[in-house]
Amino acid sequence: xxxxxxxxxxxxxxxxxxxxxxxxxxxxxxxxxxxxxxxxxxxxxxxxxxxxxxxxxxxxxxxxxxxxxxxxxxxxxxxxxxxxxxxxxxxxxxxxxxxxxxxxxxxxxxxxxx
Amino acid sequence: xxxxxxxxxxxxxxxxxxxxxxxxxxxxxxxxxxxxxxxxxxxxxxxxxxxxxxxxxxxxxxxxxxxxxxxxxxxxxxxxxxxxxxxxxxxxxxxxxxxxxxxxxxxxxxxxxxxxx
Lengths: 114, 117
Known about the structure:
The complex is a heterodimer. Chain A is mostly beta strands. Chain A has strands at residues 4-5, 11-14, 19-25, 32-38, 45-50, 54-58, 61-66, 71-76, 85-92, 103-104, 108-113. In chain A, the strands form two sheets. In chain A, strands 2, 4, 5, 9, 10 and 11 form a six-stranded mixed sheet that branches. Chain A is globular, with a radius of gyration of 13 Å. The mean pLDDT of chain A is 91. Chain B is an all-beta fold. Chain B is 0% helix and 51% strand. Chain B contains no helices and eleven strands. In chain B, strands 2, 4, 5, 6, 9, 10 and 11 form a seven-stranded mixed sheet that branches. Chain B has a four-stranded antiparallel sheet with strand order 1-3-8-7, with no helix packed on it. The N and C termini of chain B lie far apart (37 Å). Chain A binds chain B through residues 8, 32, 34, 36, 41-46, 49, 51, 88, 95-107, and chain B through 2, 4, 6, 32, 34, 36, 41-46, 49, 57, 59, 91, 93, 95, 97-99, 103-111, 113.
């Protein structure tokens, strides 16, 4: 079993829809959780960072963490075509990844249809 | 803030040559830098972790003599792919973290696409 599981998609939704992206993990030592957005041929861009269970909201984005279920989600409201990208979840045992770096999911390819 | 640059953005080289990739943190001091590799449709895989002024720590399966990492200053790390072969063709991405200064996560560079012929 991989440490972090993420459905690679593609996930195609109409513009304006609410998007739900998810990751599950097996290592209960993970304490820090991140979502990155990666456009084709570009480096990942940090969207959300959280280290506690519950919800964190930033504009149209909401990150949700459920440590008891080892499940994290990213919700995108009022989705736009410019949101079309690959979304990577990442997690770490230590702040900033520490000496172990980050463990990434495979990424979900999201397509927002105009 | 938290901008990380990489140079070059892409490189094509002949098999057997060496390629150097630079990673710079532009507006913060990165006490720790990470190098990742990403193959098409795959996730980012950590290659090595480097702290300024000390030797890099390599992940299992990554040859330290092939992938030379130097973190000479708090804003610059370099990755040199020595004697590159076609199987080394990949997307190399660095990230930087300001852990000592209380920074909480990593910021990524735009990546370097390497093609070895």
